[in-house]
Amino acid sequence: MVERKRLTASDWTAAALDALGRGGLAAVAVEPIAARLGTTKGSFYWHFSNRDALLEAALLRWERVHTEEIIALVDTDPDPHSRLRHLMTLTLAPTTTADRPGHRVLLALQASASHPLVAPVFARVTQRRLDYVTGLFTASGFPPEEARRRSLLAYTAYLGHTNLADASPELVPVGAEQRDYVDAVVATLTRR
Question: What positions does the DNA-binding region cover (predicted)?
């Protein structure tokens, strides 16, 4: 008899987030995720009351890992300009959405942004990201209104890049060209 590994709620949540990125909301289904994890639905019900609870946990994980942890990482840089460059490098670096699971999830969530469980998390994450980038521009000496406009421009550059990397990855710069691209984006965003 083969002993199965005892799965945690975190295992299920990670698998749900992966499924979300691969196939959208419809892919967050208990039986296929259980099969991928090599377990039964009984394991799922040990940790979650229903699919919505799993989806909520996956959305919170996405928020934590792909927003809060990125911000914490970027905040280790010494000055606002370095933080902005680091952030843009992280967000504009992938050549395909397969390179960045968080980008795949973002695309899936954009397509489902009106879903009652997705909408509040998606809005909160978007606002948090915009507020953070606005703070970087403010700390760099831009007036609040200008900092906000520049944060919107930076965020739309990220969203556009993510969509381009998904639809036409061959058009996304790589290697030295990618570094030059990030430099150009940061120079444009910070030009006075």
Answer: 29-48
Report the domain count for the chain: 1
Query: Are the beta carbons of 89 and 182 closer than 8 angstroms?
Result: yes
Q: Which amino acid does the sequence have at 35?
A: A
For 5, the token pair is 């590994």
CATH number at residue 150: 1.10.357.10
Assess whether pLDDT exceeds 60 at residue 17: yes
Global pTM? 0.92
**Are residues 75 and 164 in contact, defined by beta-carbon separation less than 8 angstroms?**
no
Kindly report, residue by residue over 81-124, the tens digit of the pLDDT.
999 999 999 988 766 666 677 889 999 999 999 999 999 999 99
Asked, for residue 26, whether it belongs to a domain, the answer is no
Q: Where are the alpha helices (DSSP H) in 48-117?
A: 51-63, 69-74, 80-92, 101-111
Q: Which domain holds residue 95?
A: 60-190
Query: Does 24 fall in a domain?
Result: no
Task: Bin 100: left if φ > 0, else alpha if -120 < ψ < 50, else beta.
Answer: beta
Whether the pLDDT of residue 4 is over 80: the answer is no
